[in-house]
Description:
Oligomer: single chain
Radius of gyration: 17 Å
Distance between the termini: 8 Å
Order of helices and strands: HHHHHHHHHHHH
Strand content: under 5%
Structural class: mainly alpha
Amino acid sequence: MQYVLLFLEGIITFISPCLLPLLPIYVSYFSGGNNDDNPGKKSLINAIGFVLGFTIVFVALGAFAGTIGSFLLYYSRWVDIFTGLIVVALGLNYLGIINLCFFRSPTKSRLGDAKPSTFPSAFIFGIAFSIAWAPCVSTFLGAALLRAAGQGSAQEGMLMLFVYSMGLGLPFILGAVLINKLKGAFDFIKRNYRIINILSGSLLVLIGILMITGIFGQLMGWLS
């Protein structure tokens, strides 16, 4: 059951306000920003490289969490407070209330100019994604790591974070495969990007407050 929950947590991470509004940008990145009639194959290869990149990093974190599990569990309350503050700050950044110069959402122009067309470049981008977006996805990634920490085994921690990564990565791969069929949805997201940002930022602030107060941890406990 815990593996099913981890997989679902990965999917929920994908549909979080940090990632879902940027799906059109990432899929365009996978396709190299070209206008080919059938970019699906190229997008799929690059999407797999991207998912593989962040999966390796997350699995390594799972091994680390499993090794020092008791330590992380002992300080889990402080971890919740610290990550909650980060999530609130990211939410305020999305709302435009504060400006975090060191954290900027990828823009269409920056990713579009890169135009990756190879598996290795997408793989490296996946590694960079896992590092740069760690604070943003920490809500559910942290919960997955704490589950891994509770196992007290590096091997078990690696397996659990692999399952979580598959839940997060599968929607990226599906988006790459269905790039042509999702163009209408992508256009809608682009047209309403500002509204989505406001809703996303508000949700992030709420989640951060729930983490700081400990309510989020209780909710996760009830779900498990």
